[in-house]
Design a protein that fits this description.
Layout (H helix, E strand, L loop, with lengths): L2 H12 L2 E2 L2 E2 L1 H6 L1 H4 L10 H19 L10 H19 L14 H8 L9 H4 L11 H24 L6 H19 L3 H23 L7 H4 L18 E2 L5 H6 L65 E2 L8
Antiparallel strand pairs: 1-2, 3-4
Helix pairs in contact: 1-4, 1-8, 4-5, 5-6, 5-8, 8-9, 8-10, 9-10
């Protein structure tokens, strides 16, 4: 399986959504996806979301070369699901349209609240049991990771469709790096979140290396496809392999308690990354996204400890464990 194939599946699935709602008419026309419903049909929106998630999961499994191989894209599927659950969460909480809204809801809590009772033919939640600890990640953080996936996919799709001569590649890669830096500025204190961030960096790096290697140097692709570096120019190593995530340790929980500094120019609650010396200052609202209704992130805001819906665990381990399996690929 390739990252391009993952991008195609996510783009296909996203095409069924209007915010948190699945287009019923379009959904019912796809007999393969509808076939994952129980009793021949999905009557509720939640069932249709579960059917789409199961469809993506099964397509992932069909595309990997070895059935026993750890599927490095399962984490990305949970990010995709988080994006849909967060939109549902905003609607149900009456916070849709509220700029920068965030709370302490985890992915696992959102799934249990909104999707668990709406079963389809197979329970993909159990099938994803290989990474149960990732379910305890904050829902909003996971949504922002999916936004980075969208940036990566936008670059890959443009390159595949228009080649190395595309005039958009440089802009798209700068936007991607902006989101990468923004996430780093918010989550770097938590090693499990940082591992996730650099897992996605690995997908981008593998594509970038493959594209540069297979493109004539006259196209200057190495400069068009910017490296994902930090603000000071430092480049972190891409993360590869399966780990046991831990979001209950003190450093990760601290991210859920500290009060953010809101950037005046930002309409969201993520702290934007400043431009590198090579980049001119850009207004944050110019950051492109494959989700037009969502604006560029500023500083991630989570509730104080008294407001958290997810209680801290007793475990205070700081290092996620890496099995060394898996790896990136274009």
């Amino acid at each position: 399986m390739t990252t391009k194939q993952m991008c195609n599946l996510f783009r296909e699935a996203d095409g069924y959504f209007n915010d948190e709602n699945v287009d019923t008419e379009k959904f019912n026309k796809n007999t393969k996806i509808k076939g994952y419903c129980r009793n021949g049909g999905c009557k509720k929106n939640e069932e249709r979301i579960n059917a789409l998630a199961l469809y993506i999961h099964m397509e992932f499994k069909n595309l990997i070369r070895k059935k026993s191989e750890y599927n490095k894209y399962d984490e990305c599927l949970l990010m995709w699901l988080s994006d849909k659950l967060f939109k549902m969460h905003l609607e149900i909480k009456g916070k849709k349209g509220v700029k920068g809204y965030m709370d302490g809801t985890t992915l696992n809590q959102a799934y249990k609240n909104y999707l668990e009772k709406h079963k389809v033919r197979f329970d993909y939640w159990d099938l994803l049991g290989i990474i149960p600890s990732l379910r305890e990640a904050n829902l909003k953080y996971m949504t922002e990771f999916y936004k980075l996936i969208n940036h990566i996919c936008k670059i890959i799709t443009d390159y595949k469709d228009n080649g190395a001569g595309s005039k958009n590649l440089s802009k798209y890669s700068i936007d991607c790096r902006f989101q990468y830096r923004t996430l780093y500025n918010n989550i770097s204190e938590c090693k499990s979140y940082l591992h996730l961030l650099n897992r996605l960096k690995g997908l981008y790096d593998d594509f970038r290396s493959h594209a540069i290697k297979n493109t004539d140097s006259s196209n200057n692709l190495a400069n068009k496809l910017q490296k994902l570096t930090l603000e000071d120019g430092k480049e972190l190593n891409a993360a590869k392999g399966f780990i046991s995530y831990n979001f209950s340790n003190s450093k990760c929980k601290f991210l859920h308690k500290k009060k953010p500094t809101i950037h005046k120019a930002s309409k969201s609650n993520l702290k934007p990354a400043p431009p590198s010396p090579q980049e001119p200052q850009r207004k944050t609202q110019q950051l492109s996204s494959t989700t037009p209704s969502e604006e560029p992130p500023g500083k991630l805001e989570l509730p104080s400890s008294s407001q958290e819906s997810h209680k801290p665990g007793k475990n205070d381990q700081n290092e996620p464990k890496d099995s060394g399996k898996g790896g990136g690929g274009p």
